[in-house]
Amino acid sequence: MQLEEDHLGPHLNGKHLRPESLMMSYGYNPEWSEMAVKAPIYQTSTFVFKNAEEGKAFFELAYGLREKNAEEQLGLIYSRLNNPDLEILENRLRFWDGAEDAAVFASGMAAISTTLLALLKPGDVILHSEPIYGGSDYYIKNILPKFGIQSIGFQACATTEEVAQLLEESGVADKLAMVYLETPANPTNHLVDIEGCVALARKHSTEEKKVVVAVDNTFLGPVFSHPLKHGADLVLYSATKYIGGHSDLIAGACAGSAALMKAVKGMRTFAGSMASPWTGWMLMRSLETLKIRMEAQARGAETVAAYLKQHPKVEKIYYLGDLQDNPRQQAIYNKQCTAAGSMISFDLKGGEKDAFMFLNSLKLIKLAVSLGGTESLAEHPASMTHSDICLADRAKMGIGEGMVRISVGVEHPEDIISDIEQALAKVAVAAAAEA
Ligand SMILES: *Cc1c(COP(=O)(O)O)cnc(C)c1O
């Protein structure tokens, strides 16, 4: 009664099963725990060896002291190295991106920092899109230089030719070790052409050194965007967002080829940045509804965006379902996104005062940073998520004082719109009182 499996995963009647069909039970055997249909939480720090010889053999494999025999499995040793909840979860998570392996971390930042530390060394250069998540930006610009790793940033809306030229002009193109992308960019939803960046990375790769392309896929992945299919080497996630999806946990993930993931997991062991068994279990619960949540949120966002677009107090919206005025972005969208997701930013015609009046007036939508959860959230990028970017850079990125960002949840879209409608009505009152 077991599914047959090849290197691409389980199949039935000659067809590979889709990820959403595998999230409930793949990789877990009820016989491991009293026939429970769900994997239990293996809330344990360490695992008992049957005998000393087994302990020795497990360590030999874990530390790479010898090659694995044909049927040998990596044994359970200690929960910083491996734990059943994390292993089952990672074996499920990889299917969404068609990756050979995945690793789960204590946070998105733990996934990103551990991956960069695993793959970069002193003297290396990392080329990255801008804007990127504030924590990643800080890590690349303030922490990596301590280890002699230099960075070059390019605007997310730049063309591949412009990026190539920027790299040439830097004079350090020969030191390029990684291209790091975040697409769509937060909060402007600018898309970066993954294939263009992969070609650039390949051009600067040599026999001895492959330039790795890593993509933070938090905003659309792992359902609506699959960077590995466009040639990227690694995908990174804040699993706190859509993957967790209920705003009740902090976690991160990385997925890619077995060879790269071996290096990333090796660093994770020594950074101690793995997720706990409890978080692993929560994420398995979340993966079961990942696709239907993301689809419902994307449908809701489409309705909300259409409402915002026609509203007289809204100057401009930044939404992936509304790119018709930008053929170049639309072409990238058509190539690498299968839906527009549920992140919408918009500019109010006034400045901070009007944005604050709007945010303070919301009743159903919560005023909070973070995104991707079942509840709708709204925030003010200029004074919150992007406040540590200097004014000039914020202006370059298109993040104004009147901008509001909304993460659309699974509430009825008409109820979300009712809330937005009454909050926008208050903005009018504020503007009139001022005049
Ligand atoms: C939230 C976020 C991160 C950081 O993740 P944490 O789980 O908060 O550590 C990284 N990248 C993006 C795009 C994010 O939205």
Automatic annotation (TrEMBL):
Database matches in InterPro entries: Cys/Met-Metab_PyrdxlP-dep_enz (IPR000277), Cys_met_metab_PP (IPR054542), PyrdxlP-dep_Trfase (IPR015424), PyrdxlP-dep_Trfase_major (IPR015421), PyrdxlP-dep_Trfase_small (IPR015422)
GO cellular component: cytoplasm
One GO BP annotation of this record: transsulfuration
Modified-residue entries (N6-(pyridoxal phosphate)lysine), positions: 241
Domain of life: Bacteria
Keyword Lyase among UniProt keywords: yes
PROSITE patterns: CYS_MET_METAB_PP
Entry keyword set: Lyase, Pyridoxal phosphate
GO molecular function terms listed in the Swiss-Prot or TrEMBL record: carbon-sulfur lyase activity; pyridoxal phosphate binding
Cofactors named for this entry: pyridoxal 5'-phosphate
Signal peptide (residue range): none
Family: Belongs to the trans-sulfuration enzymes family.
This protein's name: Methionine gamma-lyase
Organism: Pontibacter actiniarum
